[in-house]
Amino acid sequence: MIKYLMLFGSLSLTVVANTLLKMASKSLSFEGGIVSVLLGYLSSQLIIGGFAAYALAAVVWVYCLSAFDLSYVTFVSSVQYILIIAVSILVFQEQISMMKWSGCAFIMIGVIFWMKG
């Protein structure tokens, strides 16, 4: 049971990391030189939090790779698409087209078939 929680934790941390970096990108300036941009990154708590979440997700992901077949964890990680769409709608008020919903449905159907097969 713990390995499934770790897998979901890794996927969730990746979604959190993406969300934090997206939030940070709205407040950062990409004007000026590379040093200016890097200093903006280093002074943003959201950027630092996003990278920390990615790092923790990577550590947990390595555990998942040892606990599951590579093909299994790779396909299960597709659930991130659904989680990202939920964040896109709930946090960023993005509009998701019917075509994108259809694509996600096909992905999830494929994941279910993969897991059953």
Automatic annotation (TrEMBL):
User: Per its UniProt entry, which superkingdom is the organism in?
Assistant: Bacteria
Which Gene3D superfamilies does its entry note? 1.10.3730.20
What would be an example GO MF term here?
Answer: transmembrane transporter activity
Entry keywords, A to Z? Cell membrane, Membrane, Transmembrane, Transmembrane helix
The membrane spanning regions, by residue number, are 41-63, 70-92, 98-115
Asked if the Swiss-Prot or TrEMBL record annotates the protein with the keyword Membrane, the reply is yes
- Presence of keyword Flavoprotein: no
Q: Protein name, please? A: EamA domain-containing protein
**Organism in which the protein naturally occurs:** Paenibacillus cremeus
